[in-house]
Amino acid sequence: xxxxxxxxxxxxxxxxxxxxxxxxxxxxxxxxxxxxxxxxxxxxxxxxxxxxxxxxxxxxxxxxxxxxxxxxxxxxxxxxxxxxxxxxxxxxxxxxxxxxxxxxxxxxxxxxxxxxxxxxxxxxxxxxxxxxxxxxxxxxxxxxxxxxxxxxxxxxxxxxxxxxxxxxxxxxxxxxxxxxxxxxxxxxxxxxxxxxxxxxxxxxxxxxxxxxxxxxxxxxxxxxxxxxxxxxxxxxxxxxxxxxxxxxxxxxxx
Length: 254
Fold this sequence. Notes:
By secondary structure, the protein is an alpha/beta fold. About 45% of the residues lie in helices and about 15% in strands. The two termini are about 35 Å apart.
């Protein structure tokens, strides 16, 4: 199994890779030998992560892009094709959220979240599949959410986007399985990303309530999600496709 986890010489593109779950996934993939291409909108964050990784001897590249924009994704795909020739995997992790009941939800906010959470996955999959199919056993991992399979108060747009990502994942697995491309989704539960910690600090999250609904009694660390993503990317998961991997400490079983 250890040999199948190895990613030496492979390029993996991770959107939202500068921090949080994306950074943790990129780190896990670097540890397996991959070159992690971390993509995001904030150059300073990407460069700080790149320098941190390179100080550990890991292979890491950066690309500044807003993957909710078609032109940015097209530029990223062209660059990756010129730089690597082929891409082993894409991790679609970029995303955002906000809280609002639907009767108070402005159209502009709805569309912005659809662009960030769903259009980005469409653009990335469409533009990178030709590069993925040049590799042996390529894969896509889409980061959805437990709120893509269950509901949550005051988050209609977020739940809608993540539910769409889950089912788009299944559909792509059907279309491209015959070509050897695996497509899976990971659904994290409450995870102590920098953004989530900010919600806690602002009193927007009741940690006692969070712990009460998680069977393991605590939120996840980003690394616990990143490790699952890295496994699904690797050849150790070679017979896993169309799966919805709930990484939630048991949140959705009760």
